[in-house]
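Tip: read the tokens left to right.
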């Protein structure tokens, strides 16, 4: 597989821009977040943008591997549609949780996101096996985020 620089940059840019826009749009809500009662093991607020930046970059690399795989176009398109859907769910969750403070609803949304991530991982892995390892940290982090979201909904 020949490395395609422009495609790689595009694939990295898409999830990073989604994360940047969501982060900028909800950053004023972080003051409120800091005041919430949180469950045990809640990390400090500064850690979230660091982790999400890494996860978005890993998503971008995984999408590049799928796009550059040389597999049949319908297989790639199907996988990328699922990827786009989970990315959209990820984006909307930030608003539901931080901006609108719909903690219980956002937990249900996060469960749907978790399922979409799992389906994306399975579809991507069928196309390019290394994508499993790139997206597994994302699934694990969203699992942890689910714990935090549920704890915040329960405590507040």
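Filled-in amino acids:
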């Amino acid at each position: 597989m020949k490395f395609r620089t422009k495609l790689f940059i595009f694939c990295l840019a898409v999830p990073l821009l989604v994360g940047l826009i969501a982060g900028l749009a909800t950053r004023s809500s972080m003051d409120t977040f800091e005041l919430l009662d949180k469950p045990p093991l809640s990390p400090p607020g500064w850690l979230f943008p660091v982790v999400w930046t890494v996860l978005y970059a890993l998503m971008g690399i995984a999408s590049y591997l799928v796009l550059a795989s040389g597999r049949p176009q319908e297989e790639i398109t199907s996988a990328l549609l699922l990827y786009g859907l989970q990315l959209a769910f990820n984006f909307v969750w930030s608003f539901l949780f931080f901006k609108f403070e719909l903690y219980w609803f956002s937990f249900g949304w996060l469960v749907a996101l978790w399922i979409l991530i799992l389906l994306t991982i399975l579809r991507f892995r069928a196309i390019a096996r290394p994508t499993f390892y790139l997206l597994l940290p994302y699934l694990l982090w969203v699992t942890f985020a689910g714990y935090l979201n549920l704890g915040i909904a329960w405590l507040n």
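The chain has one domain: 5-20+43-155. The CA atoms of residues 91 and 138 lie 14 Å apart.
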